[in-house]
Amino acid sequence: MDFKIFVLFVLTASSQLILMESIEHRTVTVNGINMHIAEKGQGPVVLLLHGFPELWYTWRHQIVALAAHGYRAVAPDLRGYGDTDAPSSISNYTSLSIVGDLVALIDALGEDQLERMQVHVVGHDWGAFHSWYLCLFQPDRVKALINLSVAFQPRIPSKKPTQSLKATFGDDYYVIRFQEPGEIEAEFVHAGTANVLKKFLTYRNPGPLMIPKHERFATDNQLALPDWLTKADIEYYVSKYQHKGFTGGLNYYRAVDLNWELTAAWTGAQVKVPVKFIVGDLDLTYNSPGVKEFIHGGGLKKYVPLLEEVIVIEGTGHFINEEKAEEINEHIYNFLKKF
Asked: Cβ(37)–Cβ(12) under 8 Å?
């Protein structure tokens, strides 16, 4: 190995280790489950909510940056993930349960305060999805919201989500393939945990993610990692998913129709907290049929009337908070400091 490359590798590894060691970890009991949280800093709380197949770890860059700016950054492993409990029933993965966890966590973080605490929230993927519902259910607990990748999705009364997705994309669409309990987990075992995680985390095709059933879950063992995702990062994710498995995270997808049923009362409801939305132009969610028109054509503003800004970052995929960490850190701070 070239000496300069070796030194850079050692410095990068050392910086990563220092970054990780500066973050504190503990377990809190919320809403009947034990939840692992990572936190750093003192000041106003910023709740950082991850998606699939992520963990608290996806926010490692934001945790350190926010703490340096005078915030208390808190990133939980959501239920079903990492070192947080994973209830077995799919019915425990709707927004009612997830938001229940988050409200209880906010209460636990503010237990020494006389008044009910408000927090800033930053969500990505499923974390963004449930952040929208947190703001619908309990808007008084959120000062401001920054959501990444997943825009607000109005409830369509006429058709269940899986019916719409199957009609649009077919049986091989990843959300449809995730529906049968145990089936995709078996394919993930066959492919190997590291390969599955690399496949998802490096996905940059703006088209729909398809997993043809007859081809099983195809992976490339030699898949190159981008510069924002290191071997050490993959190893951390693997260490947790090999222990916990993927079922908890997959149950979020399996609960989408039940969630649709349980949230009928919020049909047409608006999110009435200040919001900033950020997405990469290569993100598969941004390129889904009708999404760009909804975001830029007034639909998102209709349902999120306090939407202040929409940012589209060019040449960026779905895992935007890791791929463009410094840029996202700046966007988060510039928005939150107004409150």
From this structure: no
Which position among 36, 50, 130, 318 bears the catalytic label? 318
Q: How confident is the model at residue 202 (pLDDT cuts 50, 70, 90)?
A: very high
d(CA 21, CA 17): 6
171 is catalytic: no
Per the CB < 8 A criterion, the answer to whether 105 and 30 are in contact is yes
pLDDT in tens, 230-243: 999 999 999 999 99
Question: Which is more confidently placed, 22 or 12?
Answer: 22
Residues 38, 31 contacting (CB under 8 angstroms): no
Active site residue 214: no
Tell me phi and psi for residue 338, to 5 degrees: -75, -15
User: What distance in Å separates the CA atoms of residue 135 and residue 3, rounded to the nearest whole number?
Assistant: 52
Mean pLDDT of 210-230: 82
* pLDDT digit string, tens, across residues 65-88: 999 999 999 999 999 999 999 999
Using DSSP bridges, classify how beta strands 275-280 and 119-124 pair: parallel, antiparallel or unpaired.
Answer: unpaired
318 noted as active-site residue: yes
DSSP 52-107: TT--GGGGHHHHHHHHHTT-EEEEE--TTSTTS---S-GGGGSHHHHHHHHHHHHH
Residues 6+ apart with CB under 8 A from 331: 146, 276, 278, 311
Q: Which of 81, 253, 286, 303 is catalytic?
A: 253
**The pLDDT of residue 113 is above 80:** no
Q: Which helix (H) or strand (E) holds 313?
A: strand 307-313
Cα–Cα distances in angstroms (integers) from residue 204 to residues 37, 114, 183, 302, in the given order: 29, 46, 25, 29
pLDDT-derived band of residue 2, with 50, 70 and 90 as boundaries?
very low
What's the CA gap between 178 and 253, in Å, rounded?
A: 7
